[in-house]
Write a structure and sequence with these properties.
The complex is a heterodimer of chains A (about 475) and B (about 450). Chain A has 17 helices and twelve strands. Chain A is an alpha+beta fold. Chain A folds into two domains: about 210 residues, 2-Layer Sandwich (Cytochrome Bc1 Complex, Chain A, domain 1), CATH 3.30.830; about 200 residues, 2-Layer Sandwich (Cytochrome Bc1 Complex, Chain A, domain 1). In chain A, β9 and β10 form a beta hairpin. Classes of the chains: A alpha+beta (about 475), B alpha+beta (about 450).
């Protein structure tokens, strides 16, 4: 039976004739039109009338959480959140009502490196959406009562995060890995920084860091270029550049662990233990990206990855295990994580560390590498399918200075990655004895299993901060 | 995460007021094989990718005590080997050809969702047809996957206060119908499912007559149908599964459930028995949910989060289900918030809609929201496949996707007040509270 089906499969594949309609080269991401407003703001535009909807993405470089100072952690996040909570013309209720009435959405939030406004609406409502976005970005009110409400919500949100060990482990890890480096600033702030925060600090952050000469925007959807240009001039075009040079938007080089750094966070009611392990990765656009992506797909980037196969598929220890590379302009991070029953965390860590050693030793086979290349290339088109994902890609590529043909070049490079390059990337990137490892769980149950890895710093989850 | 039950998703009614010219009922090619398998095909060359969605009419609704959670377990076992394709091979072969997949189990149906480049189409059809009938349930793999499910339950219910409260509220509100339990099932059942019982369940529900196949994307419909016929037609038809006959009796008075648990923040949920998706009262209730619960301008968000600052967030609504389920209001209270006060605020706001209904502006706003959500669901070929299959399963007619705008437009605004007064009553209500014990205050 097995053999018959196998034969049928081979035949089936041999007969797999009809390739998909040929696509012109260079179409992973269609080249957008470039609109430069009178105030200098650049907006990339692509028309797509398939559905009567439009997506806007706008980023402001240097307005992310990494630009908070040690004492004002959370100011960037508060500034972004408060921009939709009242402007010179509209109060928070009016903004919410206007957006909800249209069935539109507008979020202003921060990443480490930049702030981002994401707006999506029906095409017929784009003029009103742009008016609101522009109002929020250019005349935010930062009223005392809205500040107090948002700050209180965030303090409570941090408490709630500690009820969820999966969320908590990420916050503890970010602090443990980056420490005082700007990438260690929590977007949410900490309970201590939020208690001391004043609305003036948030206003100062806004005034200093939100300016059109630091912004890049993209619009994709069912709208015509000339109409859009007129709309943009009337709205975001009125955003004035302040006098004086913009503050630095440079993030210093990332820290690198010098040895093993181990942190155990005691959560006495946890029935599962969660771990996160991290080590240096590579910067956005680095030449090592294609082989590193092929390697990580195999190690922990898809369902049949080594980590998920050993921890979930073969042993049923967990619901999921993965590894990722995160990239910034200034550098990158490799991380791996999973969770299991309290009494299995030692077994899980042994297997994980063993797989990292195996990867670093260069054990990826030619067949695996071929599978990974196919997988990355096969899945890629879906990541740029929607208006929102295309608009997001335009602003990100412009932010990193990578050019709109980046993904075509990247896909071509993926197709050429060799096993030797993958094993070389693994040897260069997979940590051996230099990493940060954080475990959140019930210390009484898991502590004894952890001792063999070295000396652990211990924290109580009920203690303030991370 | 992949392969997770649709436990937490608020699958609120997301329907249409109008359709894009680019996607009409005529774009869907329909064919039913002699063995009962219904096939829907959509050709769309926007990206070089195909979405192949297989829906089975089986969910936790079809389970019984002792076998709770088994629909979701079979969803996991569908990746763990057949007589022809060994454990893990489905994923390995699919990923080698550039494909990825997921699956979800709900109260009413189970869906298998594959996304892959066009060159992988035949291989995917071969493997999907194979696992519709040939699951092996290898004993060691069966036990290992049982552990995965137990881990998933610990992750998504026992270590998640909102979920554990939701499970208790559901089980308190619904006493007889199988909606009594969540998709994940009870832990004691997870730990004791027997292989022979699970196999019998699989044979009952995994059959061509109980399935719908939707294939959308960069494909040739004629050639695709030929491939489907080639690999699915040999599958024998099975007797129809037994009907779900239990009807939830009317609730005769208010119910409540209180959970004491170590936590930083309390939890609060309130639910009322609601009509099924096909009931004429469903759409008016789905409309009511929007001005009441959706967005920061909704009545309850304003009262609970903005004005009185009792909560961090709120949500809820009516879910489209085959049998009557619940209209829910979820509140994420602030630490230390007075839960009785939250309950009173909700009742004050409900009094207004029971007495006066919603305004015409709120009605228009609800329609705009419905339209926006609808297009959001159709942005991708995968979204189109999912919507078509969902309508086919829930209503027995995918065409409902293309006419539902008329149904919405036909709802008279006073019906919203009527259904609020009919369903959101004290005797029909179940209240759930999670009170923190210990931990930091």
């Amino acid at each position: 039976m097995k053999k018959l089906i196998g034969t049928a499969l081979v035949l089936a594949l041999a007969l797999l004739l009809v390739p998909p309609p040929a696509r012109p080269a260079g179409t992973a991401l269609p080249a957008p039109e470039k609109i430069v407003l009178k105030n200098g703001l650049t907006v990339f535009f692509l028309k797509n009338s398939d559905l009567p909807t439009v997506s806007l993405r706008l980023i402001v470089r240097g307005a992310g959480s990494a630009f908070d100072t040690a004492g004002t952690e959370g100011a960037a996040g508060l500034a972004a959140a408060l921009m939709t909570k009242g402007t010179a013309k509209m109060d928070a209720e009016a903004i919410a009502e206007a957006l909800d009435f249209m069935g539109a959405s507008l979020f202003i939030s921060t990443t480490d490196e930049y702030a981002q406004a994401s707006g999506d609406s029906l095409a017929e409502h784009l003029p009103r959406l742009l008016e609101i976005v522009s109002d929020c970005l250019t005349t935010p009110a930062f009223k005392d009562d809205e500040f107090a409400k948002e700050r209180a919500l965030r303090i409570d949100g941090l408490k709630a995060a500690k009820d969820n060990p999966g969320q908590a482990v990420r916050l503890y890890f970010q602090k443990a890995y980056f420490g005082g480096h700007p990438l260690g600033r929590l977007d949410s702030g900490t309970e201590a920084s939020l208690e001391q925060m004043t609305v003036q600090t948030v206003k100062d952050f806004y005034v200093k860091r939100y300016r059109p000469d630091r912004a890049i925007a993209a619009v994709v959807g069912a709208v015509d270029g000339p109409a859009l240009t007129a709309l943009l001039e009337r709205t975001l075009g009125a955003w004035k550049n302040p006098a004086g040079a913009a503050p630095s938007d440079i993030i210093p080089p990332l820290p690198a662990p010098k040895g093993k750094s181990l942190l155990l966070v005691d959560k006495p009611d946890a029935t599962q233990a969660y771990f996160a392990l991290g080590a240096p990765g590579y910067a956005m656009g680095d030449k090592i990206t294609p082989p590193a992506a092929v390697m990580n797909t195999l190690l922990g980037g898809r369902f049949t990855s080594w980590l998920n196969t050993e921890l979930r598929i073969k042993r049923g220890l967990t619901y999921g295990a993965s590894s990722t590379f995160r990239t910034w302009a200034a550098g990158g991070l490799f991380s791996a994580g999973s969770y299991t029953k309290n009494d299995k965390i030692g077994e899980m860590l042994d297997i994980t560390l063993g797989l990292l050693d195996k990867a670093a030793a260069g054990a990826f086979t030619a067949e695996e590498v071929e599978s990974s290349r196919n997988y990355i290339q096969g899945q890629f088109p879906r990541t740029l399918e929607t208006n929102a994902s295309k608009a997001g890609a335009y602003v990100r590529l412009a932010f990193y200075g990578l050019g709109f043909d980046y993904y075509d070049a990247y896909m071509a490079a993926i197709g050429k990655v060799t096993p030797a390059e993958v094993n070389k990337a693994a040897a260069a990137l997979i940590p051996k004895d230099r990493y940060v490892l954080v475990v959140v769980g019930k210390a009484a149950d898991i502590g004894p299993q952890l001792r063999k890895y070295g000396a652990w710093q211990e924290k109580k989850i009920s203690a303030p901060g991370f | 995460m992949r392969k997770r039950a649709g436990l937490l998703a608020l699958a609120l009614a997301a329907l249409a007021l109008s359709l894009p010219a680019a996607f009409t009922k005529n774009d869907v090619k329909v064919h039913t094989l002699a063995n009962g398998l219904k096939v829907l095909l959509v050709e769309d060359h926007n990206i070089p990718s195909i979405a192949l969605y297989t829906f089975f009419r089986v969910g936790s609704r079809n389970e019984r005590p002792g076998l709770t959670g088994v629909s979701h377990f079979i969803e996991h076992m569908m990746f763990n080997g057949t007589a022809a394709i060994g454990p893990g091979e489905f994923d390995r072969r699919m990923e080698f050809r550039g494909g990825s997949n997921n699956a979800y189990t709900g109260d009413d149906f189970t869906a298998y969702t594959d996304w892959f480049p066009p060159a992988a189409l035949e291989a995917m059809i071969v493997m999907e047809a194979d696992r519709m009938q040939g699951l092996a349930f290898v004993p060691e793999v069966f036990e290992s996957e049982r552990g995965v499910i137990a881990s998933e339950r610990r992750l998504s219910v026992e270590n998640d206060n909102d979920s554990i409260l939701g499970e208790n509220v559901r089980a308190t509100a619904i006493m007889a119908h199988p909606y009594h339990w969540d998709v994940i099932g009870w832990m004691s059942d997870i730990l004791s499912w027997r292989r022979d019982e699970v196999m019998a369940y699989y044979r009952t529900y995994y059959a061509p007559g109980n399935a719908v196949l939707v294939v959308a994307g960069d494909l040739d419909p004629v050639k695709t149908l030929d491939l489907i016929k080639k690999y699915y037609e040999p599958i024998k038809t099975s007797p129809p599964p037994p009907p779900v006959s239990t009807v939830e009796p009317p609730q005769l008075g208010p119910k409540s459930v209180l959970i004491g648990k170590e936590a930083q923040a309390p939890g609060f949920q309130v639910v009322w028995h609601a009509p099924s998706a096909k009931d004429p009262d469903f759409l008016p209730l789905a409309i009511l949910a929007r001005p009441l619960l959706e967005g920061e301008s909704s009545r309850l968000y304003r009262r609970l989060v903005r004005d009185e600052q009792l909560a961090l967030d709120i949500g809820g609504g009516a879910r489209e289900t085959i049998d009557p389920l619940l209209f829910s209001i979820y509140v994420k209270p602030r630490p230390g918030a007075d839960l009785d006060r939250i309950d009173r605020v909700i009742e004050e706001e409900l009094d207004k809609v029971r007495k006066d209904g919603i305004t015409s502006r709120e009605f228009e706003k609800a329609m705009n929201g419905v339209r926006s959500d609808f297009y959001r669901g159709l942005q991708t070929v995968a979204g189109r496949a999912d919507q078509l299959g969902t309508y086919e399963l829930l209503y027995g007619d995918f065409g409902k996707l293309f006419t539902v705008m008329d149904d919405y437009a036909a709802v008279k605004i006073e019906r919203v007040r009527e259904v609020a007064a009919k369903y959101l009553t004290g005797n029909n209500k179940t209240t759930g509270k999670l009170i923190p014990e210990g931990g930091a205050k």
